[in-house]
Amino acid sequence: MVKIGQFNFLKIFRKTARGTFLEAGNLGQVFLPVAQTPSHCEVGDKIQVFLYRDSHDEVVATTKKPRIEIGGTTCLKVLSVSRVGAFLDWGLPKDLLAPFGEQSKKMEVGEFHIVHAYEDNTGRLCASSKLNKFIKAETSGLKAGDSVNLIVGDQTDLGYKMIVNQAYWGLLHHDDIFREIKYGQKLKGFIKKLRADKRIDITLKQPGVSGDKSLASKILAKIESGNGFSAINDKSPPELIYQEFGVSKKVFKAELGALYKQRKILIGKDGIRFANTDKH
């Protein structure tokens, strides 16, 4: 079934100097401007187009890829606000409407908001920032270690809420954040843990890739390369620790503690060094 708000393969019905008319089933014929019609296509050929309603409420086609499709979730910029709602930049000539009733908080021009695209009761594609209506709290079909697509949500006391595969809520704990992230950013991540309540804990580093033993070796090698000293210690920024060792600050601090208990290193305010002249 041909549907507004997504890509469809449609047959060319007629070509004119202005553009191409496509057969859109239940929607009748839709128009594709000549500038977007592939030059090699002829009547009877099928082409892939995105369907949406223009400023005259007519269904039109485009070969351009919008920033969001129906059922999708992403972060969009507010371009204008009118008496009916906010209009968002989704990469097409007619801006995407986020009605006031679908705003979790009032949108202002220039702001970025994570929204979900849905079809309203008149058949128009609209945006909603009331994400709990569309994003589920409990997951199914995922397991620890799975690779997932993430969108960074709001910050909480525990960490950052993450939208997992545009379908589920997850949580990236502060201890697992090793570089700067920001609201609306798209990331690749992994399922760290599926909790008993079916909620998801997220990690940005693939679980099990680097064990404690290899991390200890990296730390000791770093000290050795610095003639017995490294300025990177438990007070260093998370992003610096990850850049050097590929682990979160929490994991790094735990390994420093283990090496200290083994009397292999000393931890000072200025950095870390070997505990004795025999090194390790």
From TrEMBL:
Domain Conserved virulence factor B first S1 residues, every copy: 4-64
Name of protein: GntR family transcriptional regulator
Cited Pfam families: S1_2, WHD_CvfB
Similarity comment text for this entry: Belongs to the CvfB family.
Species lineage: Bacteria, Pseudomonadati, Pseudomonadota, Gammaproteobacteria, Oceanospirillales
Location of the Conserved virulence factor B-like winged helix domain: 218-273
